Amino acid sequence: MTSEFVNWDWKKLGISCSQVLLSFICFRFSQFIVRWYLFGTCTFRTFSYFGWGKNRHHSNSFVDIHSNQPLLVAPPNRRWRISNEAVSLGHSVVSGFWALYAIIVYPKLMEDMVNYTNTMAHYLLIVSTGYLIHDLTDLLMNEQSLRIVELLFHHVVVLVAFGTNYATNQFLGVVVCGLLMELNSIFLHSRSMLNLYRVDKSSTPFRIIALLNIVTFIIFRMAVSTYLLYWQITTAWKMVWYLTLITFVVIVSLAITNIVLLYRVLAADGLLGKKRQRGVPANPTEITTQASGADADDRLRDEDEIEVIA
């Protein structure tokens, strides 16, 4: 029996790989541009939350308590997160609206989610693959908290979905449908940026973004996940067993991830009760003036950990 994974178009695969590499380079370059524009540096010192209690004599010399620019005095991990969120926000805007446009203009992507192919949608896949590899690289180089585990899991699952399309030249419609979730990611990243910029959660801008985040979450994450689960149940079982298994793992994993993420968003916004609500982390300059030496460093790191979880 000849496997569909054996009959690859090596020339097309090679071209796709070179295009993914170009996309990766563009996102890496944009990451450094954002870092340089916001902070005047392309690299940040990183630290690990896993061993933060052991390094209690770390110097806080990078914090200037007289500065009126809170971003410049933020700990390196927070500055890295700001730059990372900015690039992720840019990708979400591009890929989300690109996916929506592709589905509207080429409805066959939804009518035949397995076999229909389209050049414009394929390029969307190329761009998003380059971004995911970039973000995966950026996380491995800079993120040293427990947050990395779930992010790596998400990225690997999505890359498996993309890789299945490259290997079989199928499931383009499934992938593009899944990329509609990026329309919600626009507001997820925007909300994270507001948190990192210390915007008051009771302020009008934050409340508007939080509301749009929840609304788009229901429409573009939960509804899309539900539709993909429906497709899995009604259609995917007709395919060969290993393709059915791959689509099942990918779709169910993303659905579970979205459910957990929705719970966290609702809890962070106080919609599940005050006890589960998380506030905006304190300004690092305030922390520095209230505490000194090792205690200040510990509190800075602790606040960042809250930021990561929220």
Notes on the protein architecture:
The structure is a single chain. Helix 1 (10-39) crosses helix 4 (119-142). This protein has one domain. The longest helix has 31 residues, at 204-234. Helices cover 70% and strands 0% of the residues. The protein has helices at residues 10-39, 76-105, 108-111, 119-142, 147-168, 172-179, 182-196, 204-234, 241-268, 284-290, 293-309. The chain contains 11 helices and no strands. This is Bm6963.
What key attributes describe this structure?
310 residues; mainly alpha; 11 helices; 70% helix; globular; disordered N terminus; disordered C terminus
Give the number of domains: 1
Q: Tell me the number of strands.
A: 0
Categorize the overall geometry.
globular
Rg (C-alpha, Å): 21 Å
Sketch the topology as an H/E string, one letter per element: HHHHHHHHHHH
Low-confidence stretches: 1-6, 49-69, 284-310
Strand content: under 5%
Largest sheet: none
Straight-line distance between termini = 49 Å
Oligomer: single chain
Proportion of helical residues: 55-70%
Number of helices: 11
Structural class: mainly alpha
Could you report the average pLDDT, rounded to the nearest whole number? 81
Organism: Brugia malayi (Filarial nematode worm)
Main location: membrane
Membrane topology: Multi-pass membrane protein
GO cellular component, one term: plasma membrane
